[in-house]
Amino acid sequence: MLDRPTTREGWAARAAALAIEGRAFIGGAYVAALDGASFAKVSPIDGKVFAHVADCGEADIDRAVKAARAAFDSGVWRDADPQRKKAVLLRFAALIRENIDEIALLETLDVGKVISNAFAVDVPFCADCIQYYAELADKLYDEVAPVGVHDVAMVRKEPLGVIGAIVPWNYPLIIAAWKIGPALVAGNSVVLKPAEQSPLASLLLGRLAKQAGLPDGVLNIVPGFGEKAGKPLALHPDVDMIAFTGSTEVGKLMMVYAGQSNMKRVALECGGKSPHVVMPDADLDAAAEAIAWGIYYNQGETCHAGSRVLAHESIRAALVEKIAAVQQAQIPLGHPFDAAAQLGAVVEEKQMRRVLDYIAIGVKEGARVAHGGKRAMAETGGFYVEPTILDGARNDMRVAQEEIFGPVVVVVPFETEAEAVRLANDTIYGLAAAVWTRDMNAAHRLTRAIRAGTVWVNTYDRSSLTTPFGGFKQSGFGRDRSPHAIDKYMDFKTIWTSYR
Known about the structure:
The chain is an alpha/beta fold. The chain folds into 2 domains: 17-270 and 476-493, Aldehyde Dehydrogenase, Chain A, domain 1; 275-465, Aldehyde Dehydrogenase, Chain A, domain 2, CATH 3.40.309. It is 39% helix and 21% strand.
């Protein structure tokens, strides 16, 4: 492994020397799109083309699904000894770690996140997830049901078959691992469709999986655009399940496509508008630090980003000042290759325009820009937005109801605990939330009343592979992470034997 660069110039030189693989990975080999089509990959860091990627379509999806089905039906992975599965997946995780700098660099070039976070968080968390599920391979038990003395009723867990995994661009590696880890340990074959904005690090996983010993066809990776590749995957009659992370709008389409095709299973992790409820007795310094990191980390491009702050009116102004101060001191905006940067580029120009438009909408609706609010670093050619606070908002404003998916936090005041609960739940989403108070009685009341898949108390964004992640309401259904995630990739078969 080459020494890790420590400067912007060093990372730029490493990037220039990369041999980037942009072809699809199908049946254990890299292949061009059947029609030869490709698309230019623009880096949000500087707005320049740095790679070309296979622009796959329905025929390529069909080829990948057929490869996955053939591998599944052969039993080469489905019926492999649990120890064999464990060894292969552990080797896969080890290879991800061995190639950490290359994978992290591809991730940063693709989506604009700061390189220090890519190699400290995204790649290690991807490897950790694969390892976690690998270690469960020989710990999955079937059941014997309690029935009469003349019967034996076994409940067997069997893999579904071919899993279509569609993942977003904000945490491409981590979320891909959340899908393929449990799907593979359950014995399925997988067709992974990364977002068109972030295919390159995921495509590298194909080579590493094959090198680890995963049989050909068990993991296939097909880049392309949603309408051209994602939709055919969701509609394919030989796909048994779609595991999707992305917007609520597209998640609803996944359900439609499942119904229009073969009634395939669907698991959805969709949007969020997660609230921080900050009570008047809260530790404001701790709350401000967590709020700032919870919205500005990864440019706010996080499904459970704490994008709404419900602040008691008595502490609202002080809290806003503290959030801005934390951002300035701890989360500086900068070039993703700079060692000091903690907030990088928004994923693409279209998303940057969307974020800036929402800031303008918030102001028009009556909110006040208390911090940031403008495009930044335009001279680089890249897509950067200042970390922004919209203060004095109402919860019925679009900026308080709609997912912006950028470095913008909206502050809404409240007066009573009952009002805070009402505001927290006044959203179509229910992915995450936080409660800030020194009163544990109030904490228990609030955590019970707030409808969200995860509710933190006096902290934010703490997580573990051992805990399930997912949402309520239109944030979706089905859970990633933890042993619970495996069950959705399996079917339950009852085998009943009577004897005398």
